[in-house]
Request: fold
Amino acid sequence: MTMLAVTLRRNRRSSIMTFLLVLLLLGASAATRAAEFVGGPYLCHPRMDGMTVGWVADAAQAGEVEYGETEAYGKKAAITLCDQIVLATNVSSRRSACRVRLRGLTPGVTYHYKVSGHGMNGEKTGQFRIPPRTDPLLIVFQGDEYAITDLDVQFVEERVGRPVDLLVDVGDTIQHGRAFYDFKPQLYRRIPIVTAKGNHDSDWSDKLASLHHFDYEGRTEIKPEQVVDYGAARWIVGPYVKYSDDFTREQLTWIEDQLKNTDQAWKFYVCHHIFFSDGYHSTLRWGNPPEGQLRRRTVWPLFMKYNLRIAFNGHDHVYQRTFPIDQDGNKTPEGTVNLDPSIGNSARAQQSPWMARFQRSGDDRANRVKGVTYLYLKGAQGQVEFHTRPQENARLEDFKLLDRFTFSPTRFNPDALVPPETPGGAEQARTPQP
Reply:
């Protein structure tokens, strides 16, 4: 063997060893790299004895939760569930949704929590309080890409004079999971979220990530329904039924069971697809049969039978509220209100006799608005208010009351049966909160 051949062989062996050493060092670096927060933390899956703390990281199984009744914490909980967020078909992502279930909690106690450790870089903190059933309950709503902001929550809390207890989403806010990791506002750290499944949230068509990242324990893409008893109210998040379809017998049985098998005085229904609408997906013209027509004839009698006062839905990108009505749209104090709390640019189709209020952000194109809807339950009175504000550079003094009505667990007060522009409607409701 010539000297040149020996040198070449030694150089080749040295190169291979160097290459393997570089791979080993890169692997060690990747293994020891701390995960970074991408979004959160946020609260979901609220119950009277438990809460889920979730966050999004750029690595799986990173982080754990310390929690307790003081900022000293004292208890630890490991990740209960962690799965990858899919942003687009055939596109890999390092984002993972991690959740920790906190159990055995006590209503009325303020809990502090911290997400850190277990391979996570830095820490994020928050706190929450599960309201006892005897306490007032304050709820804000969002849907159809129009997420509420910290300013909206600040306005509601200052107007009512107490913290918001719950955020209810009527679907299509976090479309396909693409914006899921942007849950950064402070409000999500202290206000738990309850979500309905929307047609743009689901993965039934394109297999993209959906709202299952918010929740777990029996709730899946196939069966997204759930019932949430929280504070003084029961929230029935209905089965996902799209467009002109009707409920199945099994779904109707489930809904009736949730309505009758509770001692909660306040009951509300949440879904995405509409029952009554004057907007783009008008229930008088969309689909064959028109959207919502079959569903309201099968489920509305159940709502009235079990004193369900309001059915919340989205899909139309507007604020629209019916009078208290029966299944045919006839006004009655013992009826149910259908309310879409979102606001957007959907065009109005027509004006129906059962529609009490309709508002879209494009009504004044030079001054487009956003809106916030809240529900306040105190003792035997419920109250809904809807306020608008400018889309840009809004201040607390810019919020404008556009709708308000009150009710008891069994019937509506007269202000729900008249249009807001008439005496007894929103113009008279500009008095301070009770």
